[in-house]
Amino acid sequence: MNNEGTENPFRLWRELGVTMTEHATVIRYNKGLQQADAKIVELLERYKKVNLSDKSQWANTSFAFARQLKNMLELSRVVAQGALLRDESRGAHYKPDFPDRNDEKFLKTTKASFTGDAAGPKFEFEDVDTQWIKPRPRRYDAAK
Amino acid sequence: MANRTVAFEIKRQASPDAPSVWEKFELEWRPGMNVISSMMEIATNPVTAEGRQTTPITYDSNCLEEICGSCAMRINGKARMACSALVDNLEQPIKLEPLSKFPLVRDLQVDRSVLFENLKAVKAWVPVDGTYDLGSGPRVFPQQQEVNYPLSNCISCCCCMEVCPQFNDATGFVGAATIAQVKLFNNHPTGKVLKEERLRALAGDGGIQECGFAQNCVEACPKQIPLTDAISDVSRDVLVQKVKDFLRT
Known about the structure:
Number of strands of chain B: 7
Oligomer: heterodimer
Largest sheet of chain B: 5 strands, mixed
Structural class of chain A: mainly alpha
Order of helices and strands of chain A: HHHHEE
Number of helices of chain B: 8
Number of strands of chain A: 2
Mean pLDDT of chain B: 94
Shape of chain B: elongated
Shape of chain A: elongated
Strand order of the largest sheet of chain A: 1-2
Helix content of chain B: 25-40%
Radius of gyration of chain B: 21 Å
Radius of gyration of chain A: 19 Å
Distance between the termini of chain B: 77 Å
Structural class of chain B: alpha+beta
Largest sheet of chain A: 2 strands, antiparallel
Largest interface: A-B, 12 and 16 residues
Helix content of chain A: 40-55%
């Protein structure tokens, strides 16, 4: 609240949005994801200098927003780094460099936990329960 | 073409007891901009048209697609949703004011819990909570669905109450939205077990008889709910209920 910085939280938010829209939507390239992660690290650094133009104690939505922004930044690192770990195309996520689904390596749930380190979140993979439905290629041009 | 700008005049009030002031803003025009995106723009650079530093505007908003009902405010004097108010369709300067009949929180944010309380008073729900699976409910005919669906579109924005001349402290009128929900839940094959209770709740002070048929509500409703039809139908049901109750005692 009393942070005397130069950064406007709403502007940081917009930069984050532009970065994530550019690199971490449907079509993803590893290079772009690395750039996005680097950008988020920069934004996290700038976040320390965040300054609220609204210092009031009553119904201060900027304050609530600035606190949420921190979580958005952390979560964006999860999205970017989690996507970097998967060199495949799965579901709606398409990596032109790896156009096929790789069930051998990545038929898993990505789990991320908060660490507080500069390197970002810690990732683990959990196997998917496939005992009832056997995975098969997703095809729209032929009947099952 | 030179940089087109958009002019805003926003009524601001720092707290419920503070005096209100008008602030002017000038923003760069963007394609497709609406009132909420403009206020987000102001938040990134909270400076008035005169170049004075100010605070980001406080307002409620959530879905930005006219379905949550939280961003209701008066735009150029008309109660409507800010998210669906496209700047290109509005006369400038665009004047933003908070809803006038609800306790003000700050700037454009008001406390609309009165509608929630009214909906609770008329039991606007289907009572099916239980400890075991009751199976599927009764079938509803398509003709009945056609009537119910528009009523279920209510987004609780309170625009109909803001424009109602009868909705004020003197009458304590519940407002059109609540009455429409009474019709909806009384039409529901399971919800109608509470029909009598709902009608009695609308029979007392501030009940349906306070309606003056100004018909502003149906004009203002952003979801085009047939509010006046609902008021007429429920009004009849309330009267029948009163007569029944009178004969029973």
